[in-house]
Amino acid sequence: MKVVSVEEAVATIPNGASVMIGGFMCVGTCERLIDELVRQRKSNLHVIANDAGVPGKGIGKLVDAGLVSRMIASHIGLNPKAQQQMMAQKMTIDLVPQGTLVERIRAGGCGLGGILTPTGVGTSVEQGKQKIEVAGKTYLLETALHADFALVHSFLADYLGNLQYALTARNFNPVMAMAADTVIVSAENIVPVGVIAPDHVVTPAPLVDFLVGNQ
Q1: 174-202 tens-digit pLDDT
Q2: Residues near 209 by beta carbon (within 8 Å), at least 6 away in sequence
Q3: How many of the other CB atoms lie within 10 Å of CB of 179?
Q4: pTM over the 0.85 mark
Q5: Mind listing the pLDDT tens digit for each residue in 48-66?
Q6: Can you tell me the distance from the alpha carbon of 200 to that of 186, in angstroms, rounded to the nearest whole number?
């Protein structure tokens, strides 16, 4: 794990990368990293996230700048600009039920091929997907999600990279930290090793590649 500047961290992300971004309607979203993505004009991004944020905030900044070519999310309802880009075919959006989305990410982090879920059976969601029957009940096979990068926001980080989250800002961040090749963390507070009690570590240091320093 390396402590780097936000500029150095984002410079490792190429155009066209797949990027998981933690947060739930901008709560627990790494604003510093998103701002730097916009500044460095990282384009053609494939974003995996719960939502599209709102205009001018969170993932909405990437949408505003036209840097997202594809998004996998559970809803985009609070970002009219994402809706407009989808309708204009400037951005492809795959809408996934929220529980299915987080389980697909978890599966990617655990090395599984996918999950079985009854959600979507008998609806348009099942189109093009394999159906499997278990104990007389029909499930859809939903494949695992994995990304090149995960952008994670935490409340506390120590200088080894152990992370602790604050309340609902935890949301998607821990599972995304397990499901990407490279994990970049922006923390509100960086503390000496030992300040975070072992029982309070949610994301352990071996999962973290870069920690953005508080310059």
Answers
A1: 999 999 999 999 999 999 999 999 999 99
A2: 1, 2, 182, 183, 184
A3: 24
A4: yes
A5: 999 999 999 999 999 999 9
A6: 18
